[in-house]
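Rotation project, supervised by the postdoc (A.L.). Task for the rotation student: set up a whole-complex structure prediction and record inputs and outputs verbatim in this book. Inputs entered:
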Amino acid sequence: MSTSYAVTDSLTMLRRNLKHALRYPSLTVGVVGQPVLLMLLFVYVFGGAMKLGGGATYVNYLVPGMLMMTAGSATMPAAIGVCSDMSEGIVSRFRTMPIARVSLLTGHVVGNMIQMLVSLVLVLGVSFAMGFRPEASFGGWLLVVALLVLLSLALTWLAVALGLVSKTPEAASNIVLPISLLLPFISSAFVPVDSMPAGVRWFAHYQPFTPIIETLRGLLNGTPVGSNWIIALVWCAGIAIGGYLWAKKLFTRDVRR
Amino acid sequence: MTTGLAVTGLQKSFADKTVLDGIDLHVPQGTIFALLGPNGAGKTVTVQILSTLLTPDAGQAEVAGHDLLREPDAVRAAIGVTGQFSAVDNWLTGEENLLLMADLHHLSKAEGRRRTAELLELFDLGDEAKKVASTYSGGMRRRVDLAMTLVGRPKLIFLDEPTTGLDPRSRRAVWDVIRELVAGGVTVFLTTQYLDEADQLADRIAVLDHGQVVAEGTPDELKRQIPGGHVVLTFADPAALDLAGRVLGDVSARDDEALTLQVPADGGVHSLKALLDRLELAAVDIADLSVHTPDLDDVFLALTKQEKVTAR
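Outputs recorded:
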């Protein structure tokens, strides 16, 4: 019974989550707002002082990093949504019904991935308006989309696990701060890693966001990617699998008391 | 009579605290069973175990004809649960909540709409059902909650303190719905800390205290287990109290502070008149008088105030 209805039940839960998102869009607006504001700030205020070699424009440099930041900050509504859902009586009701257990989590994951991808499209739209002119071919764009989908899957599973481990929605919004702020800032999103002092440079170089940003940058702007794409794929796969296993373990434990 | 619910030796502990210490229950199909007890007696944990939310440490249970531990999905398909805390999706309207339940019970679109309309009608939800649930009052929310539980036509319904926090009118409305359900052949397992609720609704009652069933029976059987009714007489001064005590002789309790005497009485008019006549004859003035007929409160207090009562 549980397995045969897994898809039907997941779709029902997905509809429920999307209805929530459409009815209360403020969190999604925040997700798009933060990178857009930062883009305006960095391009129009600091942009003049940012000198890049080879005649590249700063907005072209910045956009791949802003896409990464958008994905990072979209983990916040995902974690808050899961956490507040779990603290409501409705989840106890779901658990006493003959529905596929996993549907509750897959409903959240697919719903949040859709929100994340919509946010990415919106930020991309704004960046075009601000003068973003990528050189990517059609094939390059397909790879960009594929990487962003994989990234969304990975970050969403991680966000779901973080939402499950948080006791309150406030805690959930704090616990994702490293993903939504720390990792995007201390990465190659705003300035090249080489320009940073030694310790910071080391962190920025080895943390997961930088290789993903560099891969996006290479695909969009034609800058050298090197081995970054392999590292990016390994990070995404690792975060996705780790987040999935963690979330599953948290969800199947006995009811909270 | 077929069995709606049968429980033997159910045990559950959390860390070092024993919550259920081996309880046995038997509920025939199509009856209302009330689990009565004070806060912390283990009522909610019992419901959580029997509705597959928690795993028991020991014991067996057959719920709506299925083994609780071996066939949890079959149990889930046969039961409906209204927990102590509202299980309504606050971000959806009342109607959408019911349609969500219909989808999760895999009803067809048409069947789901029909069932939803039927329940909205039964619970008198009307126009309110188009509003988002977060705007609902407690009584409204509870009605939606109950309606959601019924979408899948359960054979056995668990109601964990279904009227806690409701005003008297909403409470009566919930009682009416419960009675209608049982008339339709559904088994109801209800927990409550309100004695009148158990008295009003239940065919059988089990009194739960410190994780043990300290008494079980019909409301009348339970009432018979305690001493009968009594009259409380209040006097104006200690002299009158003394005199009345000597005249009446058969006094079950005397309070010198409050100047009261408690005298056994069956609550009948004749015995009350005889009592008053005797005091009148001795010229004792009575300041106040109250008549107490035994109710479940007396049962409850008698059974739960001692550490351990072997009333069964």
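Student's summary: Chain A has a mean pLDDT of 89.
Supervisor addendum: Chain A is about 75% helix and 0% strand.
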